[in-house]
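Before relying on records like the one below, remember that each one covers exactly one chain. Contacts with other chains, cofactors or solvent are not represented anywhere in the record.
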Amino acid sequence: MAGEVTIEEFARLDIRVGKVLKAERVPGARKLMRLEVDLGEGRPRQLVAGLIGFYEPEELVGMNVVVLANLRPRKFMGILSEGMVLAADVNGRPVLLTVAEDVPPGSRVR
């Protein structure tokens, strides 16, 4: 179990609902998928996630996922990831955190 955090530390996290607009395998990568996600910002964010083998790209399109939006950008296989899609770990399998369809992209999670 991770250590405790203060409410101020938690408040620094920008967790939002995002709608997956596009998903595709990263060429040459075993597990990576590139996602374009609408976070209500006027342009989609690009996220890279290790979802191959657990999800097919076409099943993610249209899904409302939970995203850590203020994670420092990082490159994976030369592709910039501008956040992190959140998932539960169920016996080593990522299970994406999703929300109801009527939650608009960009809605903050508190």
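The helical segments are 7-11, 57-60.
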